[in-house]
Amino acid sequence: MAYSGRKYEKFERIRTMHDFSRRGLLKATAAAGAGAVAVPGITAVEAPGVSAASNVPENGKCPPAKLTGRIVRPNDPGYTDASLGWDRLFSHHPMVIVFAQNTQDAVNALIWARQNNVALRVRSGRHSLEGWSNVDNGIVIDISELKSVHIDTASRIATVGAGLNQLEAVTTLAHHDLAVTTGTEGSVGLSGATLGGGFGFLTRWLGMACDNLMGAEIVVPMGTDCAKAIKVDPKNNPDLLWALRGAGNGNFGIVTSLTYKVAPLKSVAYVQAMWNGLGDLQRVFDTWQRTAPIADDRLGTQLEIHRKQILLFAVLAEGSQEEARRLLAPILSVGSPQVSVQVGNWGDVYGRFQVPIQKDPANWKFFSQFTTRPFPEKAISVIASFMQNAPTDDSNFFTQAFGGAVRRSPRGGTAFPHRSALFYSEPGVGWGKRELAGSGDALTPQAQAWIAEFSQALRPYVNGAYANVPNIGMQGWETAYWGSNFHRLREIKAKYDPHNVFQYEQSIPPASRSHEGV
Questions:
Q1: Cα angle 343-348-350, degrees, rounded to a multiple of 5
Q2: Of 214, 276, 406, 436, whose CB count within 10 A is highest?
């Protein structure tokens, strides 16, 4: 995902880096056997690209369905933990949570929900930033335990269960000196990040995560109360593949596996720089925004502004420490930053800058936006002013450089429209203690007011929004997320989910249904 307002602690941790053991990974991989790999805690199972659904009756009606998989209900001991999301700002109480163990469990759950007229949501990494992967008095179909991994190193194609998180995906591929674009937060679900677009340090080199999505298995509604799994790739249902590349989260069905084109990557140079205070912000930000989007495509950079620090993070794919410093010289020459550089395997580096979820604030709010023209001095002053008066130390302004491969859409295209952006940015605020329920309640009005005012002050300088970082109060969200692609997305929705089974507060409606503002 994009939200990354936790890197100050990561900066401190990286300064005392320790060796990251891959022994558990190697042991699990060997146990999985030839042709399949696994990370610790991940089981290699039957190839997820094979449909597990039975035939749908000609009349479109299925026999009564029974829930299968790992089922958690309100009276079960693990219900509270099973119903929690990453962002504790939102709380929901579903009537049942189904942790699918295979594709057929997802098929059965969808049929059951339709036959019983029960609201449903699909969940993977639990990082839905408006709480939309959960629902009161409905069914949550959780695919986070679908963790199969199959890698063809010769063709550089990886098919994975949709339950992998980003850390699991990065470290598994890195064991084979392979990589695909992911976000920086390891606990975020790989499928959720990819289906909404997906960007991070490798974006300028490899493109968006969704650009590398070559296929998927997805469970879709069929007939009046049935469901089935279908194959999606350039030859099978290519219109749906286009839609899944940037608009796939919770709109068309339940994605149970994803197939990626992966790239060779043996090592990276990871750079961190910190400027104390905000005195250098004008020069740092302006230098960054004018150089980062046009730098060597292998160089991915993120800038974070906090109350008392400016942080730069950069990854140079297949580069040396000297080359990384040279490429970043324009920004590193501003002021007197503290700078560190490490060179190593991408999986090791990625694993080291993760922060345990338990150390995160309980509550978070973000506003997403894209920028196609450099920020003028006034806009950078707005950032400085708001950050100096931020309500918590976990408040931040985060940016991700675009350009490079982002500007090149893959064969078949994608629903992600923000190709011409110079950079992505988001103000964010975190508050409250995760271990103390309700600890941040008193600060909630102040935190929400601060970020709403911050976002509004930046509106003259930004455009659009990112579907993976939504805002429930946004006007014109349809075009903010998907631009001119929204009409085609509605047509595809009408084809694969004409009864609007998959719906939430900002879901894509079928073209046949009236929709205000469309």
A1: 90
A2: 406
Give the whole-angstrom CA distance, residue 441 versus residue 462: 31
Q: What strands, in cross-sheet order, belong to the sheet with 96-99? A: 70-72, 96-99, 139-142, 120-123
Tell me which residue of 202, 181, 169, 171 sits closest to 245, measured CA to CA.
Answer: 181
pLDDT less than 70: residues of the chain: 1-56, 58-59, 513-518
- For 408, residues 6+ apart whose C-beta sits below 8 A from its C-beta are 207, 211
Burial class (CB in 10 A: 0-12, 13-18, 19+), 412: middle
Tokens of 423: 């950079």
Task: Give the pLDDT of residue 438.
Answer: 82
Residue 457, CA distances (Å) to 104, 125, 362, 378, 380 in order: 48, 32, 26, 10, 11
Q: Which amino acid is at 289?
A: Q
* Contact present, 100 and 106 (Cβ < 8 Å): yes
Q: Which phi and psi (to 5°) does residue 277 adopt?
A: 75, 180
Tens of pLDDT, residues 138-174: 999 999 999 999 999 999 999 999 999 999 999 999 9
Instruction: Quick: pLDDT tens for 387-431.
Output: 999 999 999 999 999 999 999 999 999 999 999 999 999 999 999
| pTM of the complete model beyond 0.70 | yes
How many angstroms separate the CA atoms of 353 and 202, rounded? 15
- Record the tokens describing residue 362, joined without a space: 């309980």
Q: Which residues pair with 468 in a beta bridge?
A: none
- In whole angstroms, give the CA distance from residue 270 to residue 351: 12
CA distance 11 to 312: 10
The token duo for 275 is: 């400027």
